[in-house]
Each structure stands twice: as C-alpha cells, then as structure tokens.
Design goal:
eight-stranded mixed β-sheet, five-stranded antiparallel β-sheet, about 15% helix, about 35% strand
Length: about 400
Amino acid sequence: MKQQFIVLIFFTLSFSIIYSQNIGIGIATPTRARLELNGAVDATSAIFGGESTGISLQRNWPAVGFNTYWNAGDKKIANGYAAKLMVDPTQGYLYLDMYPYGTANTLPQISYRALSVSRLGNVGIGNVIAHAPLQFPNVGNRKIVLWETGNDENQYYGFGIEGGTLRYNVDGPASTHKFYAGNGANASTLLMSIQGNRKVLVGGQFSGSRLGINAYDPMYTLEVVQTGNTGMALINPDWGFRFWELRSEKYNSDAGNPHTCLGLFYNGRANPIMGWFNPDDGSYTDNSDKRLKRNIKPLEAVLPRLMQLKPARYEMITNHKSSPNFIGLVAQEAKMLFPEIVDVRFAKVDSLNTIPDFHGMRYGKLSVIAIKAIQEQQVIITEQQKQINELKILVQQLAAAVK
C-alpha cells in the first residue's frame, strides 16, 4: 500500500499536475488547454488507435498523421496506405502528403505531395509550390479534367498542355487571357488573347500565327476549308437573318485545266447567285443568264438623255485638309436622266447618324447605255454617209454638165 502511494505521488509530480482542472503531461502548470502534452518520441507526441490504422500528433512541423508517425523518418502505424497533413511554421505553407502501401514500423516511406496551400491562399495541386491562386506541376498533359459520366470513361474535357500546345477553355470574369506556345513566357509565341471587352486577338504582331477553320495544318494567316459547299457568310439579324456569302465554286472555262471562281451569293432572292470573280484575269462577272430574266424588251433611245449627263471633276469631303481630284457623275443629277444607274440605300454612318437616302452610282451599267448610244449614233452616221454619197454623185453630175 505504501509503495502504491509513492508511485501515485511520483506520477503526479513527474508527469501530471492537476491545476484548476487542467491536466499537463510533461508540463508543470498547464494553462492553455484542458490537456497539455510536452515532449515526444522524436517528433511524435501522441498516437491514438495505434492497435490499428490510427492517427498521430507530431511536433516541430505540427502535423496530423493518418496511419503514419515520425521516428527517424515516416513510418506506418499499421500495414496499409497513409497520409499526413502538416504546416511549415517558417514559411506558412500547409501540405498534404500521401504515402503508398507499406508495412508497419518500417523505413523508408516515400511520400507524394498531393496538395499545398500558401499563407496567401494559393493552392498547388501536385508536387509544386503555388505562386498563383491555382497551380499545377509542369508534368503530364491533363490538368483540369471533367470526365464524361457515360459509358466511355476516356471522354473528357479539360485544360492542359499536350504536344507543346496549350489547350484552354474559359468563360471567366472580365479579364485578359493569353495563350502561348513554347518553352517559357520569354521564348513563347502568343497564340491568342481574349480581352475583357470581348475582343479576341489571334497571334501577335510578329508571331507568325495562323488560324485555320476546318484546316488541319493552315499555311496562311487565315485559312478556311469549306464544308458542304458553304463559305463565309455575313448575316444581318435585323432583317430576317438575310446574308451575303462568299465561297469557292467550280469554274469550267477550261475543262482540261479546272479552276475555281470566287462566287458571291445572297439568300434574300429567289436566285441567290449574284456574280463571280474570274480565276483567269480576276475580273468580276455579273449574273446575266437569260434563263433568269423575264419581260425582255429593247432599250429605248438614250442618246438625247446621255448628252445631258454632266461629267464633273470634284473633291471628296474628308477629315483631311486636302483631297485628290476625282472624275465622275453626281448621283442625284444622273438619277433624273437614268434612274437605273443610281442606287439609293439606308446608310448607317456611325452609332448616332444615319442617311436614309444615301445615293450611289452603278457605273458598270453605263456601258450598256454607251452601247445603245453608239448604236444610235451609228444609225445617224450611216444615214449621213448615205446623204454624203448622194451629194458626191450629184456634184459629179453637175461638174460633168458644166464641162
């Protein structure tokens, strides 16, 4: 009984002091918690559930070990996998280390750093020190992956680096996102920049970037490969989604050496073909097939009206102090004589100003008027030549009579 009392006193004095109901182990006056424990075996202060895959509390770099403790190195509490969550008190980082399957109480135990969080809140995924809000190690080609939930587990959508090409899908806040290809920012080539104002810039001034649409390996700055015989369309959503289209079309000017022409189409008409650019000399050809016309009538006399046209020399009103001289017709004047060669449209000058009756000249149509005028003149010339010939005969007859 006396020995038991001595052991109790020794335990109380050496290891535990009850002070205001606080318990201290290795500390005389525990005041910071109900239970304070000082001291450790190497860095391990306590193990709970050590008969199985328990947890440990570690000091110096304060940590919680899951089926792991520190004694001359990381060891397993029991056979199996393990992990450790710890803090670097000098740098302020929080780390999560993962351990492979191993045997209890043995070395070595190689860990993999799965997660790090800086004191600024930067998060590093994998074995990397995060210097950005979210950072990944420079290994592998899949960074952020959204896996398809269907039967094919190989389908995914993500962000990463594959074959030297940055793959990035973003719909973020109003900020600029830049995409580079190369080794490091200083030696990289700018591929694309998405501005916060919704402007998309492809390549830099001297980057030599090429943009291909339906093109596997574009050779030009912008390369578009047509699909389904469709080209590039400019669509006006304010007018029933009418649109103009440019596309490469077959051109059979030389059956032995086929070409393609650049066709112009408008879907707002029963016949969408408007015209095409000739691949041989670059000239523009108007749509003029007889099968697309009706009510064909001879053109009335044009020479008297043609003579009333007023070709002029003029300058254009511009923001510059001086403008070069031009020659042409004034549309409003020509409209009174030949309304067919004048086009009037609703013109939007800028976001605030519009001109509802903006006039323009169809100078190409003047060639038809000129042909008609030449024909009329030729009739006059022929009649005049006939009269001249008759006068020559009369003069010859008079001269013979005088002799």
